[in-house]
Design goal:
CATH topology: Lipocalin
Mean pLDDT: 77
Number of strands: 8
Largest sheet: 8 strands, antiparallel, barrel
Strand order of the largest sheet: 1-2-3-4-5-6-7-8
Radius of gyration: 16 Å
Number of domains: 1
Order of helices and strands: HEEEEEEEE
Helix content: 10-25%
CATH class: Mainly Beta
Strand content: over 45%
Shape: globular
CATH architecture: Beta Barrel
Low-confidence stretches: none
Distance between the termini: 31 Å
Structural class: mainly beta
């Protein structure tokens, strides 16, 4: 069996393992909230989310952070299922941009990539277009 020194394990793998262990391990117990992060996601539409995640219990989590491309606050929520990680991001409006929503269904826990949909609210000219845009979202190392 091959072992890796802890310092050689990619940061995104460590973050994902901690997230899964925390989501699966906590179950419905009363405890102080633990916050993990930063955890970063990048999308094919150009969004880059840097968030801190709180495990709510069971397989559910929530968090907040920033969408660095438009410097907008972002909230994140999701849950772990048998088929992967389902995540929803919501970026608030800024002076220059309308609100943006990104939903990722079933992020593969082995590839750390999921398919999703990006939608700009009331903005046909935004990067997600008038009808939304099918995208991929990846868990990535935080800068």
């Amino acid at each position: 069996m091959r072992t890796w020194p802890l310092s050689k394990i990619p940061t995104e793998i460590v973050a994902l393992v901690l997230l899964i262990v925390a989501v699966v391990g906590l179950g419905p117990v009363a405890a102080e909230a633990e916050v993990f992060g930063p955890v970063c996601f990048s999308s094919s539409s150009g969004d880059f989310f840097r968030v801190f995640i709180e495990i709510l219990g069971g397989d559910v989590f929530q968090g907040a952070g920033v969408e660095t491309g438009i410097a907008a606050p972002v909230t994140v929520a999701g849950f772990l299922s048998d088929s992967g990680l389902t995540i929803s991001f919501s970026a608030a409006a800024t002076i220059a941009f309308h609100p943006r929503y990104t939903i990722v269904e079933d992020m593969n826990l082995q590839t750390l990539i999921g398919n999703g949909l990006c939608e700009d609210v009331n903005d046909d000219l935004g990067p997600c277009g008038a009808d939304g845009l099918f995208i991929t979202v990846s868990l990535v190392a935080c800068p």
